[in-house]
Amino acid sequence: MASSREAKGRKVEVFQVEISAFCHATEDCTRVEYAVKNLLPPELKNNVFISTTTHEGYYGNPISVLNLKLTSKEHVDLLLRHLSNTLQPLEKSILKATFDLRYDQSTKRLIVRFSKQDLYLGVLKITDSDDVVKLVVHFKNAKSKNDALDYLSRVNLL
Description:
Blueprint: H1 4-7, E1 13-24, H2 29-37, H3 42-45, E2 51-56, E3 62-70, H4 73-86, H5 89-97, H6 99-102, E4 103-104, E5 109-115, H7 116-120, E6 132-140, H8 145-154
Antiparallel strand pairs: 1-3, 1-6, 2-3, 4-5, 5-6
């Protein structure tokens, strides 16, 4: 039997994922791009476009911002399945325990920060430090945080 939410045609889903990272003047931007791509499943690594914009830092130093946006259902589903299979149980526990701090009910967005250094090495480690690759998951039809939590549990991300 379908849930009342699904019966009314309001099935909770993720419709977009954004990934971004800063590349400071002291960093090699190809390495930062490599770290960003390590969040992706192998099928997507060479089939996505990462845009780069350059800004001026507080002291006049150049800061590049790398951005990647996934909007196709197929790509979003591939990424979520990959994260589900790749995140270690400890990281999933951290995500679940800190969900209230990471989820914004007003925008229906979940923000997860991964260690850029660990990602470069192929390890997905959730962190709240400054040197991160930021993943933003956009939900559709999530009327409450529990709807988003239920969805993430169903796709085995928690």
